[in-house]
Amino acid sequence: MFEVMMYDGGIYRSDELFEMIEDVGGVVLQKNRSAQMLTVIMSVPSEDREEISKLCIEIGGMVKEVPLAGTEIAVVGPTLGRHHMPHPICDIAEILRRAGAITVVMGLARGRGKNTSQISATEKGIIDEYDACVFVLGNFKTCVEHKAELMRDVHVPVVLVSGPEPEGVEDTYDALVTGVGRKAARMKNPDERAKLDEISDTVEKVLRDRKASIEEDPLFIHPAEVKQILQEYEPIDMCLRPAPMVLHLDGLRIKIPYDVHHEYLENVKVYGRKLGEVAYIEPSKIDSSSIIVRIKTRSQVEYEDSLKQ
Predict the structure, then answer these.
(1) For 15-25, what is each residue's pLDDT tens digit?
(2) DSSP 8-state code for residue 128
(3) Three-state DSSP state, 35
(4) Rg of the chain on CA atoms, in Å
(5) In the prediction, which pLDDT does 83 show?
(6) What is the residue-averaged pLDDT of the chain?
(7) Residue 277: pLDDT band by 50, 70, 90 thresholds?
(8) Whole-prediction pTM value?
(9) CB within 8 A of 215, min separation 6: which ones?
(10) Euclidean distance between CA atoms 259 and 240, whole angstroms
(11) Non-local CB neighbours of 228 within 8 Å, separated by 6+ positions
(12) Distance CA 103, CA 253 (A)
């Protein structure tokens, strides 16, 4: 059993930490360096957690819990305009980052106006690439109820955040947090910070349920293992984009062009199989400069093998 934890401290003696992670068979999920400060999110065997925690403290850092590590979450507002992109959206994205998630803020092309708001199939396809999405709507109950249709037919877990509690649209979302509407200031006071924590806890619960669903029919290979295999691939190693490989619950996003690199990825060997045989490898709906890898379950691989016999 692997556990996810975060080291937050300086770069002094950080090479010892990376050596220990490698020695115990762990994986570095994310590494961010700013000047002399370093943040490392790692997945390590449960039995080695205590020793790694001791080393983190010994070299002057802190160990933090990151329940959303290894996920990528979209925070969606009706538009990117001032009318719909209030400060709470940025605060929500930040609180999810602090819990370990990679977050993306997204606005819809035609979300403005209760009677004219729309979402396209392409936008839904983009949202479906993430592990979950948080829809942040407004202060008016009738408007929230009308715009709840924007969330329909999104296939990833949806958390709705709004001011009032809508009625009659429970089938459009998986979880609801009320009491957060549009406002022209950051969420700083204790009640507002508590509300941000509630949103983070709600997203964590929704994703915990999804993890349990995945564990019922486990993936052929864990996404962190695929990341470990691919991290020495030169185009990924040389990629200057932030977090060239982003873990998902059922795969990962690789930020290199699909047209140039998909053949290499399809032929990478994992447990004696080609990656293309045990995963779906597709260009991102955003553009072809990123690749989405979705790992098949063991039962899917077994079924496809039986068809070949």
Answers:
(1) 999 999 989 98
(2) T
(3) coil
(4) 20
(5) 62
(6) 90
(7) very high
(8) 0.87
(9) none
(10) 18
(11) 27
(12) 13
